[in-house]
Write a structure and sequence with these properties.
Helix content: 40-55%
Number of domains: 2
Order of helices and strands: EHHEHEHEHEHEEEEEHHHEEEEHEHHEEH
CATH architecture of the largest domain: 3-Layer(aba) Sandwich
Length: 367
């Protein structure tokens, strides 16, 4: 029985040629000229003055919070429904994460949740765009400006999403991207930190590269990280960015077709929103939310038995053992994120998913 993976990237001859060019020129390390070419290409999709390409999206968040110089006792407001990298970056910065709920239908942070969590110790907000739809980032950005808070914007899953014409990745004081294999733009492994602040950019460049000294290279006044991206990864990323509009178009077509095939089964699960917060869904993943946890378990078992791979939704941060070990019970109700974590899955999308494969997946799903 042939299995159906949850995702397969679009890799074509242009991607191969781009990587081959880098190899032939010897541009393989993190100091290769092609890294700068990749950074310029990234800036074109997020409209930022400065971009630092890095090893992955998780370390991009580490660098973003390092640049804020947060102190113990400082609070950062974080959506409860997101990947562990977000929590890890806040904790490693020395700050305290304050978890807030998300909207049940868009799966994203809302301004009201941020407003309710504000205290005199709040120093920053981490807004995350999740699974293909944006958060209420316009309103949250305005609120942060009004309250003099740093806004870190995680656009790891938001390549090519525009909010009323402005791209995700352009709202935060610092914004981050991931270029992991399943993203709309992939470099295999990779990420980026983006900003309009020259001082912040120079700080990130230094910390990305082991905090080498300017005058005496191997004398270090502080500890940095080796978070560089390779030239080969950058070469792949450059060619991938050129295909971003067509990649999003195909994913949206797959998402809309799933919506059509599943439209009569609202009594079984909730389908993803077609648009929210000034943007159409770009269907980075196609997620559905079951009425209860048992229904999800039965459906996943059927799909696995037929060789169809799925992924559960993010496990809420408040339920992570590492959070419970180090922090007290969250301050606010987190009902939506808890439901999403227990009931949600996403279905296969990508270069391998044809209409006949979608038909098969839906047939097994609703049996």
């Amino acid at each position: 029985m042939e299995s159906i993976p949850v995702f397969s990237p679009w890799i074509d001859q242009d991607d191969i040629d781009s990587v081959t060019r880098a190899l032939s020129l010897g541009w393989i390390s993190g100091t290769s000229p092609i890294v700068g070419e990749f950074e310029t290409a990234i800036s074109s999709i997020c409209r930022r003055k400065y971009v630092a390409a890095v090893a992955n999206g998780s370390v991009a968040l580490d660098l973003a919070f390092e640049a804020l110089n947060l102190a113990p006792g400082d609070e950062v407001i974080v959506p409860n429904f997101t990947i562990i990298s977000c929590l890890a970056a806040v904790i490693r910065s020395g700050a305290t994460p304050i978890l807030v709920d998300v909207d049940f239908f868009t799966w994203n942070m809302r301004l009201q949740d941020v407003r309710n969590a504000l205290t005199e110790r709040t120093k920053a907000v981490l807004v995350v765009h999740t699974y293909g739809l944006p958060a209420q980032v316009e309103q949250i950005a305005e609120f942060c400006k009004e309250k003099n808070l740093f806004l870190v914007e995680d656009a790891a899953e938001a390549h090519g999403i525009n909010v009323h014409g402005k791209p995700c990745g352009s709202f935060g004081d610092i914004s981050t991207f991931s270029f992991y294999a399943n993203k709309h733009v992939t470099s295999g492994e990779g990420g980026a930190v983006c900003t309009d602040s020259k001082d912040t950019y120079e700080r990130i460049l230094k910390m990305r590269n082991l905090a080498f000294g300017k005058l005496k290279r191997f004398e270090h006044e502080e500890l940095g990280w080796n978070y560089r991206i390779s030239g080969l990864a950058s070469a792949l990323g450059i060619s991938q960015i050129k295909k971003l509009p067509s990649t999003i178009g195909i994913k949206q077509s797959q998402g809309h077709r799933y919506n059509e095939l599943l439209s009569n089964y609202a009594n079984i699960f909730t389908l993803p929103a077609k648009e929210a917060n000034g943007s159409k869904n770009n269907f980075w993943v196609y997620g559905i939310v079951f009425q209860n946890e048992k229904s999800r378990t039965r459906a996943v078992t059927r799909l696995i038995d037929k060789g169809i791979e799925t992924r559960p939704f993010f496990h809420p941060l408040s339920e992570q053992p590492v959070f419970k070990k180090h922090f007290s019970k969250p301050h606010f109700p987190l009902l939506n994120s808890l439901k999403l974590g227990k009931r949600g899955i996403y279905l296969p999308t990508g270069s391998h998913v044809t209409e006949s494969i979608q038909n098969k997946i839906v047939e097994v799903l609703i049996t």
